[in-house]
Amino acid sequence: MNKKISQYSLRIVNITTIVLFALFIYGVMITHLLLPDRAYSSSERRKLTIFSDIKPASILNFNLSQDAEKWLLDQFPLRDNWRRLSAFTSINLFRMHDYQSVFEYNNRLFKQEFPLKEKSVIAAANMINDFTQNELAGLNVWYSIIPDRNAYLPENDRYLRMDYEKLNIIMRHNTSSSEIVISDLLDLTDYYKTDLHWKSAEISDVAARLAETMGQTKLSNQDSNNYISHSLKPFYGAWSGQYLLSDLSDELVWISNDKIKKARAWYHYDGKYDHIYDTQALANPDAYDLFLGGAQPLITLSYQTSFEQTGSNTGQPEDSHTTAKYDKTLYLFRDSFGSSLAPLLLDYYDEIILIDLRYVSAENIDSLLDFKQGADVLFLYSASILNNSEMLIR
């Protein structure tokens, strides 16, 4: 009799579990239908798949299930809460060292970059050589590597990191242009706690070494350290939304002087010019877009009186950068780190042209720019970009 009761109780439990699970699934499906789709995730800083993204053509092939899966995952109710639970479980229950390659160490967040991809670094070096021998022939070409913050972590077996010294050696052995070393000017305090980028207020010495090594002196007697600081806090970097278990925050600081205030940025692709710092971007999910509007293929920084005379922020300025004459021009091939460094180089150059090969093909550079003989060229890339140079070489 007791055995029959036990079997009966077990069946009740199983049936109850199945019913509750089914109710949960139906509840999720109903919630999916009732709640409006979110187009953007602030914590992940990316666009989310919405129902209208499912193309009608995919209904006729296997892509329907893939598109539907992306939509269901991106629009899952309380998605950030489930992501936070997943991170907590991974770190605290399964004792993983990182969550989605992000980990916390001494009240700072890091993203694992491993292993060193030697072929990728060699490809980056070859790209620089190709530019130097062709489009940049007759110009003064330099390169400099921005160390990842991981390079300043103490060596241990807990966190994997690539061989940064070997990366430097590969670049030196395979690049024909001269190197400007800046790693000794940096340490962990020069980087944000929650973001990969360096702090612009801490790198004036980096700007000075780069410019002076390229043979440039200040355009005036103004002290380059005579800056006015502005700040936003709290600032949550990109890794805050990925790790989800940290309440760390930063202060976003940008600095300016008379030169930076008078200079303007000409956005070639957008057909507009604006101030060097885009303060409207402080309201964006990624406030780092303050520095030259975030991802931009081609920007020219310069001093032009016509900027002060017109009230419009669209259309090409009267004294265009294509006809204006400058004594000191710098072509800066860069990634996102260059956005916060370039304004500091205005103490040394009349004109700075920023080129981001992640967003403009190298094949199109000749049609977009007429490189000025005798000008300076700097390839300034972070180690992680060189380790993933396929995003530059297309």
Question: How large, in whole angstroms, is the Cα Rg?
Answer: 26 Å
Q: What's the overall average pLDDT, rounded?
A: 84
| Residues in helices, as a percent range | 25-40%
Number of separate structural domains: 2
Side by side, the strands of the main sheet go: 6-5-14-12-13-11-9-10
The number of helical elements comes to 12
Top keywords for this entry?
alpha/beta; about 400 residues; about 30% helix; eight-stranded mixed beta sheet; two-stranded antiparallel ribbon; 14 strands
Question: How is the topology of this model organized?
Answer:
Blueprint: H1 2-34, E1 40-41, E2 46-47, H2 63-74, H3 79-93, E3 102-105, E4 108-111, H4 118-133, E5 140-146, H5 164-174, E6 178-179, H6 204-213, E7 228-235, H7 238-243, E8 250-256, H8 258-262, E9 264-267, E10 272-275, E11 298-302, H9 305-309, E12 329-334, H10 337-341, E13 351-355, H11 365-368, E14 376-382, H12 383-386
Parallel strand pairs: 5-6, 5-14, 12-13, 12-14
Antiparallel strand pairs: 1-2, 3-4, 7-8, 9-10, 9-11, 11-13
Helix pairs in contact: 4-5
